[in-house]
Amino acid sequence: MSKLQDVKLNVEKGKTKLVAGLVQEALDEGNAAKDILQAMVDSMGVVGDKFSSGEIFVPEMLIAAKAMAKGVDVLRPHLAGEGSVSLGTCIIGTVAGDLHDIGKNLVSMMIESAGFDMVDIGVDVPAQKFVDTIKENENVKLVACSALLTTTMPALKEAVATIKGSGLEGFKVMVGGAPITAEFAAEIGADGFAPDAGSAAVKAKELAQA
Amino acid sequence: MLTKRQNLVEVMKGGNPDRFVKQYECFNMIMNTPITRKKPPIGGEIVNEWGVTTRWPEGQIGAFPVHDEEHTVVKDITKWRDVVKAPNIKFPAEAWAEAKASAAAVDRTEQYCTVFVAPGLFEHVHYLMSMEEALMAFYEEPEAMHELIEYLTDWEIELAKEFITHIKPDALFHHDDWGSQINSFLSPSMFEEFFLEPYKRIYGFYKENGVELVVHHSDSYAANLVPYMIDMGIDIWQGVMKTNNIPELIKKYGEKITFMGGLHSGEIDFPGWTQDIIATEVEKACTEYGKLYYIPGSSQGLAISSFPGVYEATDEEIEKMSKKMF
C-alpha cells in the first residue's frame, strides 16, 4: 500500500495516534504536502458520506476529524511554501437566541476537513455580527448559519436576510439545523441547505466552487 | 371505566384499553425529595451537585451545561478520579418528610408513584466533559470511560436505594438522551459495550425492589437501540420521534415495550401554536400509531409545555380522539 493510501485509510479509521507519523513518513518519501492534504480531505469525504448514510456515527466522524487535524499539524509548515490550498474562509455560527453548539461544531469540523479556513463565531449570534465578521475577514466564500429550534427559525430568516441585504458579495449562504428543511432554506433565500454534517461538507464545496 | 393505571396496563399488554392514555396522566412525579437533582431557574446559573455549571438563559427552552476551559469538570478523562466526586445523598428522615407526604397522597389505583432521575449515564458523562470530548473518549480512552460509567452507575444505585427506602415508588422516570433527531449518537455496538450492562444493573435494581414500571426518556431517533432498551428492562420509551418509523416499531416490538410520544414538541409547542395545529398532529398520531402499545404525547420530557396551554390543549385533543376511536 502506498504511503498516501496508508494516510487515507488511517484518517478514515480515526487513528489519532498514528496519522501524524504516517504523514511525516509520506513527506519523507517525497510526497507533496498538497497531495497528502488532498488524500486526507478525500478520506473525510468518505467519512462524511458514511455519516450521512448512517453507516457511521458521531464518534467515528469526530475521531476521524481529529486524526486529520493531527496530520494537518505536521503538514502546516510545508503547505506554507506550496501556495494556498484553501477553498476559502467559512464563517459559521448559531443564530440569535439559540445556544446549541454541538451540531454547529460538527458541521464546522467537517467543513474544515473539506479544506476551508473556519471562523467560528459561536452561538446566539446576532444577524449583524455575521455581516461584521464577513467584513473583518478575507476571502470569505461561505457563511453557514445554524438554528436548532423551531423558535429560532425566524432568527435564521433574519440572519440570511441581513447578510443578503448587506450589499456584500463573493460568498454563498448555507443553513441547517434540526427543524430546517430544503424548502424553508429556499423560502428564506439561502443558497444551500444540508441535513447533516457529512452532507454539509459536500454542499460547502459545491457552493464555494460554483 | 378503567382507572388511568388499569388503562395503561391494557395498552401495554395489548389488551382492551377503553381510551388513549393522555400523556403523563398515569405518573405522579415526586419531585420534592432532598436528592432530586438541581436545575437552574430560568435566567439563572447553578453549580450542580457534581460541580457542573449549568445555565438556563432567559428565552431558552432548557438548561445547558457550560463547557468552556474554566467550567469543564473533567478536562482529562484519564484523571477523572481526581475531579469527579459523588455528592452526598444520605439525608435524615426529616428531610424526606415532604416527599413522603407527596408519595402517601398518590392514589396508586389511579397513578404510579414515580421518581424522576436526570441526567442519565450518557448525559452525565457529557455534562462532565462536553459532548465532543466524551464521544471521542469512547474511542481514545475506553477503559477510563468504562470506569467513570461504572462509578456513576454505582452512584445511581445508591440513589435508587434512597428513593426506594423513603418513597417506595412503583415507577421510575429516567432521562438519558441517546440520539439526535436522525440517528443515535453512538453506534449500536458502542452503545452495547458501554451502556447495556450499567443500565441492566440500574433498572434491574429498581425492579427487584418493587418498581413495576421503567419509563425512559430519549426524545430522539433510537430505533436501532430498542432491542437494548428491552434487554435493560425499559417498559415505556418516552420521547419517541416520528423519524423512528413508529408503526414498524410497534409491530416489531410492541409486545415487549410501549412507545410514548409521536408528537414533536417543536411542531406543537412554539409561540404561534394553535388548537388546530395540535388537533391535526394528534389525529395523525392516534390514527397512524393506534390504540395498543402506544401513548400519544409530546416528546417533551415532563408533563409540561414550553409555551402556556400546549400541554392541556394536547390532552384535550387526545380525549377527542378517544371519543372517536374507542
Characterise this structure.
The complex is a heterodimer of chains A (210) and B (326). Chain A contains nine helices and five strands. With 210 residues, chain A is α/β, with parallel strands linked by helices. Chain A has two domains: 3-80, Orthogonal Bundle (Methyltransferase, Methionine Synthase (B12-binding Domains), Chain A, domain 1); 89-209, 3-Layer(aba) Sandwich (Rossmann fold). In chain A, strands 2-1-3-4-5 form a five-stranded parallel beta sheet, with helices on both faces. The mean pLDDT of chain A is 93. Chain B has helices at residues 4-13, 80-83, 97-104, 121-129, 131-140, 142-167, 188-208, 226-232, 246-253, 265-268, 275-289, 310-325, and strands at residues 27-30, 44-47, 53-56, 64-65, 112-117, 171-175, 213-217, 236-240, 258-263, 294-298. In chain B, α4 packs across α5. Chain B is globular and about 60 Å long. Chain B has twelve helices and ten strands. The two termini of chain B are 12 Å apart. Chain B is of the alpha/beta class. The mean pLDDT of chain B is 96. A seven-stranded parallel beta sheet of chain B has the order 1-5-6-7-8-9-10, with helices on both faces. Chain B has a three-stranded antiparallel beta sheet with strand order 2-3-4, with no helix packed on it. Classes of the chains: A alpha/beta (210), B alpha/beta (326). Chain A binds chain B through residues 14, 16, 54, 56-60, 62-63, 66, 97, 99, 102-103, 105, 124, 149-151, 178-179, 195-196, and chain B through 57, 59-61, 64, 131-132, 135-136, 138-140, 180-187, 190, 266-267, 270-271.
